[in-house]
Amino acid sequence: MYSKIEVDINEITLKVERQNAKAMVEGFMKDSERHYISIFAASKKSISLKKDFQTFPKLLENNNARDPKKIYPLSHIGKKMAAELYEVPHRYVAVLDRIFHIKNEINLWKDICTNGLFDIWEPQAPFNCLNEKENPMVLLLRIYEVDYDFKNDIRWYNDHYSLIPKSRVKLVKPVIPLNRADSSNTEFDGTLYFTELTEKLRNTLSRHGCLIKEER
Questions:
Q1: Torsion angle of alpha carbons 179, 184, 188, 192, nearest 10°?
Q2: Do the strands 137-146 and 155-156 form a parallel or antiparallel pair, or are they unpaired?
Q3: Per-residue pLDDT at 2
Q4: How far is CA 197 from CA 91, 140, 178, in A?
Q5: Looking at residue 190, what DSSP letter applies?
Q6: CB-based burial of residue 200 (10 Å sphere; 0-12 exposed, 13-18 middle, 19+ buried)?
Q7: pTM for the full predicted model
Q8: 88, 112, 192, 216 — which has fewest CB within 10 A?
Q9: For residue 15, what are the β-bridge partners?
Q10: Which helix (H) or strand (E) holds 203?
């Protein structure tokens, strides 16, 4: 049972666009099917990787902006989500499952942004995010609900992350079950299980010749 798994939570949060946060926790609809986002663009100096994200999960938090910057355009699907005022509940954490080191190419993102993995964005959004950055990466995240609400513990620090006290929490359940046999599968309404999503991402990166290294 997931409730038996305890983890130490990072002292800094992971701030993401409101659209990303909603798609990670509630998913987005495409062709009458629900998809969940589990990826995040990053590079060597990205703030998202600070404070040993690979070891300590981060509390998921949406940033304050209603809309992304103009260089990160939303797709029609992303706009249709109407997430401008979305407030992610403060009881979800992001576990960094693995890192894919990649070549940043627009054709890769044209595929990833139309195949159910990242469809809330126009391909230019993740491409621009990584353009001319050192060591571009795709972070594969697993989002979990935990047994504690951090709403009253968050202290704003800057536009990139907030601070929370050192905490140890229990994982209640993942948003995306690992597979059909996962004990959390009883209420899942998504299209891809986590193992399927991982394989789809890996295959897409490989097919475009953009996968340099996979890091656990």
A1: -20
A2: unpaired
A3: 53
A4: 23, 10, 9
A5: B
A6: middle
A7: 0.95
A8: 216
A9: 61
A10: helix 194-207
For 54, 120, 125, 205, the CA distances from 208, given in Å and listed in that order, are 26, 21, 18, 5
Question: Burial of 181 by CB count in 10 Å (0-12 exposed, 13-18 middle, 19+ buried)?
Answer: exposed
The pair of three-digit structure tokens given for residue 139, joined into one six-digit string = 């972070």
- Distance, in Å, from the CA atom of 46 to the CA atom of 193, rounded to the nearest integer, reads 28
Distance, in Å, from the CA atom of 119 to the CA atom of 26, rounded to the nearest integer, reads: 14
**Pairwise CA distance, residues 104 & 129, whole Å:** 10
CB neighbour burial string for 125-139, b if at least 16 within 10 angstroms, e if fewer: bbbbbbeeeeebbbb
Please name the amino acid found at residue 60.
Answer: L
Residue 171, beta-bridge partner list? 146
Contacts of 210 (CB under 8 A, 6+ apart): 102, 103, 104, 105, 108
Closest CA to 53 of 113, 99, 95: 95
Query: Tokens in use for 50?
Result: 């600070």
